[in-house]
Each structure stands twice: as C-alpha cells, then as structure tokens.
Amino acid sequence: MAESDGQERTEDATPRRREQAREKGQVPRSRELASASVLVIGALSLMWFGEDLGGGLMDVMKQMFSLSREEIYDVHRLWLILSGSVWHIFWPLALILITLFGAALAGAAGIGGVSFSWEAARPKLSKMNPLSGLKRMLGKQSLVELIKSILKVTLVSGVAVFLMWSSLNDFHQLTIEPFPINLYHALDMLLNFVLLICLSLLLVVAIDIPFQIWQHNEQLKMTKQEIKDEFKETEGKPEVKGRIRMLQREMAQRRMMAEIPTADVVITNPEHYSVALRYDSSLDRAPVVVAKGIDFTAMKIREIATEYDITIVPAPPLARAVYYSTELEQQIPDGLFTAVAQLLAYVFQMNQYKKGRGKRPQPIKSEMLPIPSELRR
C-alpha cells in the first residue's frame, strides 16, 4: 500500500479532497464503458439508419455508372451530379455520426460525470520520462489492462465462433438464395453478429466500472496526518482559534466595562459575584443586565462602580440568581421583578437622601428579597 511520510493511506478521502481531485481532472473513468457504448450504439444506429444509407449508396452507384458521354466531358454537369449524389447519403450518414458522438460523450461521462480541467490538459514533463513510462508499463494498472485485453479477445472470439456455429444453416441458405435477396440476408446476419458481439463487451464493462471506482477511491485515500492538516486549513489551527476567542472575549469585556457607568445599581456577593443593572423607564420595559462577572471581573465591576459613584448593594442570593438567569443586554426574568424592584426603590431613595431631598432609607436585607426557588443558586 502506498505510503506518505511513513504513514499508510488508510482513511477515506474527505469531500474537500474529492473536490480538489475533480478540479484537477482526477475522476473515475472507464474506457471500456466508452468504447462499448460507441460500439453498441454504432451497431444499433446502423440497424436503424443502415437501410437509408444503403439505399443512398445504391442510388449514387447507379447514377455514377450510368453517366452519358456528354455528362462525363461537361465539368459543370458532372459537379452537379456529384453534389446531388452526396446529398443522398448525407442525412443517413449525419444521423449515424451524431448518434455515435452522443454515445461517445455518454460513455466517457458515465461514471465520472462531465469535468473540464486545464490542469489535466496541461503538458507534464514527468509523462515524457522514460523511467516513469517503464514503471507504468510494468505497474499494476498495466497488468489489469493486459488481463482485460485478454478477456476481451477471448470473449469476442468465443461469441463470434458461437454465432458462426449456430448460423451454419443460414450460411448454406445464402448459397441457394437469388440475388439480391441473399445480399440483404447476409447484411442482416452481419449486423446481428456485430450487435451481439458488441453486447458481449458489456460483461467487461460490468467488471471494469467497479474496479475503476475502487481504484479511484484507493488513489484518493489519505493518511491520518493529511486529514489533520486539512482540518487545520479548513477549520483553523486550534491555537489560532483560541487566540481569536480570547480576543473576542476581551473585546466583549471592554464593551461590557464601558456600559457600567450607565448602570443604576451593582448587586454583589461580596466574595465572588457582581451584577450591574440599568433601568431607564424611557428605554427599558424592565431592568437590564449591562455587566456581570465573577472573581476578578466582579472586582473590576465594583471598582468602576465606585469610580462613577454607582450604588453597590450586597445581596448574595439575588446577585447569584441574576448572574445565572440573565445574559448581557437582556431583561431580568419575571420571577425577579419584585426583588429587583424593592432593590431599585432602595437605591432611588438613597440617591434622593444623598441629594438632601429625603430621609435615609432603612438598609435592605437580602434575606427578605423574594426570590423564586427555581432561580435560587
């Protein structure tokens, strides 16, 4: 089995590998299918259009062998006769050739489809290397082609002998039939022989197609390292993806920190959690989480809140409930409306007290805030 960098090609080709191979013109092809389709369709087209072609040829021969002396020595009249004679056989011959052309295209694209590739058509010096040519001559592919050739010769010879043996009575009949009946009979026998011999090649095609598909898949097989390298190229290297994710987190964190000054209150679990809430009745239908974090991020949120004189309220159960139930820029769940409303009322009263417009509110007790059991953490 072929090896690459000491590794065996044991893995099936990926879709990307198959697509790249197709772009280079590397698709499964069966020459036996192409040749057999041309031969079979050619034999059928002769049976379909052969009578018209034969009649046209007969008319041409009759006209050419019955030329008068004046016609022979008149170049202009001779040219008109020749062009008219060719027209008798043009359409039957054109139909046969068009049918053969279609059969050739269908046979060539039978298992690999239609594929145009400049890469495959480009001249390669490696194909002109005598050593490479000798290697191909002595390779496995050449051995397979030799076996197929022997099989075809044996098959065609066997079918031809069988047909001739089974048609001995028809051969004897030809000797006693009058002309031109015996000629038509012989042509019918010949066309039937050609068609049956061509059909026998379908056995070779039935063997060749699965072999070509299997060989193509074997040629495209990859090593485990090649699959890993392709994954890195298509999906990105893990370290690069990790770096991108880290940069994305840093950008999101910077945006989050920039939103903290818009908050009305920061709820904390003094040891680990911090959640910043904003409530603007002209913008928000309910309080919105503008920042949240744990450990170092929580401490940073408290620092920014202190810098911008934002009220910080220790309420561990509520801080944990909001942190786990609400994402950034989302409204708090319905179950926390009452608890957050009580907290915001305390904050607004405290802000009025700081401005000298009211009495100092009673400190809020976090244990008294109503938090549904399904939202507790």
TrEMBL record:
Pfam (any one): Bac_export_2
Record has Lipid metabolism as a keyword: no
Record localization: Cell membrane
Broad class of where this protein is predominantly found: membrane
Biological process (GO), any one: bacterial-type flagellum assembly
Keywords tagged on the record: Bacterial flagellum biogenesis, Bacterial flagellum protein export, Cell membrane, Cell projection, Cilium, Flagellum, Membrane, Protein transport, Transmembrane, Transmembrane helix, Transport
Protein function: Required for formation of the rod structure in the basal body of the flagellar apparatus. Together with FliI and FliH, may constitute the export apparatus of flagellin.
NCBIfam families: flhB
PANTHER family: FLAGELLAR BIOSYNTHETIC PROTEIN FLHB (PTHR30531)
Name under which the protein is recorded: Flagellar biosynthetic protein FlhB
